[in-house]
Specification:
This protein is of the alpha/beta class. The protein folds into two domains: 3-91 and 171-267, TIM Barrel, CATH 3.20.20; 93-159, DNA polymerase, domain 1 (Orthogonal Bundle), CATH 1.10.150. The chain is 40% helix and 16% strand. It has ten helices and eight strands. The chain has helices spanning 19-28, 45-52, 86-112, 119-126, 135-144, 151-159, 174-183, 198-207, 222-234, 264-267, and strands at residues 3-8, 33-36, 58-69, 72-79, 187-190, 212-216, 238-241, 258-259. The protein has an eight-stranded mixed sheet. Strand 1, helix 1 (19-28) and strand 2 (33-36) form a beta-alpha-beta unit. The longest helix has 27 residues, at 86-112. The chain is globular. The chain starts with a strand and ends in a 6-residue tail after the last helix.
């Protein structure tokens, strides 16, 4: 049985490992297919593809696009995107600028609450490989400075939605994100779809060209998985899955996997190597 994990982050966004080390971990974890799906950036794809040459792992190009619909943040995965596609590169440029300004504003709020933290601390926590600066990097900076005892505490006290230092940002619409992914040669999939809006949002997303729903995840219950699969089937969508892996601090890559036959429809859309 071939094994797949189609939702993995690297240090290009908020993952712990470089793209090369992610591929090595995938080999050690006996995965056959992986997808690098960093937040709003494709900077890690070339390195991952290069690292996978000559190994047992095949890398599916990907990206995770932060989007919004009716005031709800929705993450849209783009699979089989071309790393050279102009629409994707344009999106990346604008998204990374927005992410940096959001992190700067969070730092300003934290400073206003008496915490000794600088934006340079966030950049150091992110590392030199990071392009998409996000809340996890702010959390790591707070942890490194001793202001919190864990990443979880950083989010709970300051960074989670509605937290003391939470900053809303402007995301592209889901429709625009789907169109951008398709214009970049890819197919769009709704990542970890919100169960409270699933049936209400999914028909519109399908009408705009979305191809799939993410079903197989470490914490998805059988009941919820059946529900998402039913929505996908009713709208003519395929299903995908992955661990949303960010690094070995939580689990070993390969501990969670999806049988490749469960995501074969997506895998078969890959362009010829």
């Amino acid at each position: 049985m071939q094994r797949a994990d189609l939702h993995i982050h690297t240090r290009a966004s908020d993952g712990e490992l470089s793209p090369t080390d992610v591929v090595r971990a995938a080999v050690e974890g006996k995965l056959d297919y992986i997808s690098v799906t960093d937040h709003d950036t494709i900077k890690g794809l070339a390195e991952a593809l290069d690292a996978a040459r000559g190994t047992s792992v095949r890398v599916i190009t990907g990206v995770e696009v932060s989007s919004e619909f009716e005031g709800v943040e929705c993450h849209i995965l783009g699979y089989h995107v071309s790393p050279q596609a102009a629409p994707l590169l344009a999106h990346e440029h604008g998204a990374l600028d927005r992410r940096q300004e959001r992190a700067r504003e969070m730092v300003r709020i934290l400073q206003g609450q008496g915490l000794a933290i600088e934006y340079d601390d966030v950049l150091r926590a992110a590392g030199t490989d990071a392009r998409a600066i996000g809340r996890p990097h702010v959390a790591r900076a707070l942890l490194a400075a001793g202001h919190v005892r864990s990443m979880g505490e950083a989010f709970e006290r300051y960074l989670a939605d509605g937290g003391l230092a939470f900053v809303r940002t402007e995301f592209p619409s889901v429709r625009d994100s789907i169109e951008m992914i398709r214009a970049s040669g890819g197919v769009a999939v709704w990542a970890h779809p919100g169960l409270d809006v699933l049936e209400r949002f999914a028909p519109s997303f399908a009408e705009w060209g979305m191809s799939g729903l993410e079903v197989f995840r470490p914490n998805t219950t059988p009941t919820d998985g059946k529900r998402i699969r039913g929505v996908a089937r009713g709208l003519g969508m395929f299903t995908t899955g992955g661990s949303d892996w960010h690094g070995p601090y939580r689990s070993r890559l390969g501990d969670f996997f999806v049988p490749a036959d469960e995501v074969r429809e997506l895998l078969d859309l890959a362009p010829a190597a």
